[in-house]
Design a protein that fits this description.
The protein has 2 helices and 7 strands. By secondary structure, the protein is of the alpha+beta class. The chain has a domain of about 110 residues: GTP Cyclohydrolase I, domain 2 (2-Layer Sandwich), CATH 3.30.1130.10. The strands form 2 sheets. A 4-stranded antiparallel β-sheet has the order 3-4-6-7, with helices on one face. It is globular and about 45 Å long. It holds the Pfam family QueF. This is NADPH-dependent 7-cyano-7-deazaguanine reductase. Belongs to the GTP cyclohydrolase I family. QueF type 1 subfamily. It catalyses: 7-aminomethyl-7-carbaguanine + 2 NADP(+) = 7-cyano-7-carbaguanine + 2 NADPH + 3 H(+).
Length: about 160
C-alpha cells in the first residue's frame, strides 16, 4: 500500500500529525486529511465519537452541546483522526442550528472522503427545554456491513 497521503488542499503528507496545531477559526478554514485505506477492499465500519462537541446557537450565540457519533464504511481513503478533531473543534466558533451542523459535517465527510457509506448521529442536549437529535446518512448501508447501534441513550434529564 502506498504511503501517499492527500488532503483537501491537494498536498501530500499529513499536515497536522506531530505538529502543534491551533484550532481553525471556522469549519470552512479547516482542512481534513485523508490517507489510503489500509484495508481497501475489506468491508468494515469505523466509528468516531465526539461526546463533548460544541457549536454556537445562531440566535443567542450561546454554546450548544452534543454527543456526535460518525460511522462510515471506508472506500479508498480514511479520514486522519487529528484533522477530524481539529475540524470538529472549529465548530466552537460556528453559529448553526443543530440540523445545519450535524448534516453539514456528514455531507462534507461524504463529499471529500467518498466512503462506501456514512452516517452521523447528533445527540444534542436540550435547548429551550427540548433535546434535538439529528440523523443523516448517505443511503442504505452496504449488504453485509455490521452496523452496531450508536449506543447513545435518548436524553432523560436527571431521572
Amino acid at each position: 500500500m502506498s504511503d501517499t497521503v492527500s488532503n483537501e488542499s491537494g498536498g501530500n503528507g499529513p499536515q497536522f500529525l506531530g505538529q502543534q496545531t491551533p484550532l481553525p477559526s471556522s469549519p470552512e478554514e479547516a482542512v481534513l486529511d485523508y490517507v489510503p485505506n489500509p484495508r481497501a477492499g475489506a468491508l468494515y465500519l469505523t466509528r468516531f465519537a465526539a461526546p463533548e462537541f460544541t457549536s454556537l446557537c445562531p440566535v443567542t450565540g450561546q454554546p450548544d452541546f452534543a454527543h456526535l457519533v460518525i460511522d462510515y464504511a471506508p472506500g479508498e481513503t480514511i479520514v486522519e483522526s487529528k484533522s477530524l478533531k481539529l475540524f470538529l473543534g472549529s465548530f466552537r466558533n460556528y453559529n448553526g442550528f443543530h440540523e445545519d451542523v450535524t448534516v453539514g459535517i456528514g455531507q462534507r465527510l461524504a463529499e471529500e472522503m467518498r466512503p462506501l457509506w456514512l452516517r452521523i448521529g447528533g445527540y444534542w442536549y436540550p435547548r429551550g427545554g427540548i433535546p434535538i437529535d439529528v440523523f443523516w446518512q448517505t443511503g442504505a448501508p452496504p449488504e453485509g456491513l455490521w452496523v452496531p447501534d450508536q449506543g447513545v441513550q435518548a436524553y432523560r434529564g436527571r431521572g
